[in-house]
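dumping this here before i forget
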Amino acid sequence: MTRYRLRSIPIAIIAGSLSLPALAQAPSGEITIVLPEQPSNLEPCGSILTDVGQVLSQNITETLTVVDPADGSVDPKLATQWEQTDPLTWRFKLREGVTFQDGKPFDAEAVRFSLDRMTSKAFTCNNLAKFGSDTITVTPVDATTVDIKSTQPQPILPTLISVAMIVSPATPADKATNAPVGTGPYALAEATPERIVLQRHDGYWGAAPEVTKATYVWRGESSLRVAMIQTGEADLTPTIALQDATDPARDFSYLNSETTSVRIDMDYPPLDDARVRKALNMAIDWEGLAGLFGDDALRASQMVVPGINGHDKDLKPWAFDPEGARALLAEAKAAGVPVETQINLVGRNGIYPNGTEAMEAMMAMWLDAGFTMKLTMLDVADWTRYLQKPFPADRGPTLLQVQHDNNKGDAAFTVPLLYRSSGSYATLSDPALDGEIDAALAATGEQRTEGFQALFDKVHDGLAADIPMFHMVGYTAVGPRIDWRPSLATNSEIPLSQIRFK
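structure:
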């Protein structure tokens, strides 16, 4: 993947921001958003990543369908209607009169280009991971109609296609881009190591939004981002730490669709032994760790939040059992497992508030249980190398701090990605489990729900394939100039068209 590398901002400048007086109010229609991390790139095919999606999704680039975060319904966007014509094919009718920001027409050929580009594997496409092992092909029927065919039954394809960003046919087809052009209400005006600027696109097909210009900057410290809201340097920051959410007039909590976890790389000993993986889960003082995440965060036993089809409410999370963890390690060692091998714990700076503190606390607990471990915190561009295949060849036994977002209403956006052998984020390889996953994906109704629940049970209780942590509650800070509230989708996107001025 081409990296959108941004050089570090000098510490003196950041620190100085805290002592700056309140700035003059920004010109009418203009806002500043301060993010917790610098975007790793501006490639629309990576919009499922928080740092990319919060800038691009539904601002520069749009999709054929959108999922309503309030109820999970699938709504029209660039497609106005759809129907299933056979078990493998869905037909989509496209919105007419739409052009890209470069003036090129949005039509069936543009849809084919965008989805062919996404599925080409010519470059790393994070969004493609949501399709699992399936392959989709697009056939234009006429200028405003396309057939999208999958290699296996996809009863929720209209939902699934909501992750496929539509880009201008002038976009390079064989490499990632940092100059995205879409059909959205904003065009990219500037992208430098210091800021990203989006300008309202007057040729947008829909209603003109109130925000005329949005400038994105990034600061790592939650307290600094809040200070920027207080001084008027910024109007919105989507993520702040629990301890900084102190002003009910400014700070808002919201249920989000994120689940925090630590992924276990099962390609290397000692992590290839189920006893070791279970001991990792049992060695954590979960009640103590919860203090970093807030009272409203829920302990997780699976990688989808309650309300997602396939979530098993009866699946119990691992309990804190340090003696049991030590006993499992001793049993594994007696069987010849090299439990003393150093494990690499890899975290990501800015992944969520108190994320570094969480990794430090968990490592201390694992060391106390008898593990040998080293913690490395990376910026998002370097961390992404560990997230998606192909993984670094020389990584050794690795635990990876991750946060998984599923606000689409169905476990199909989680299970194949994380647990199927072909899954882009999967370190698990189990042909029998693959068959069960494919069966659940093809099912409908109660059979689909029960299939996913059985998979989560097996992954948790039998395989201990990962370390589920918490279903998250987010906290955001909003300045006095604007009228905006976070939603279930905020960790995935911040549509500027939803922001109003007071």
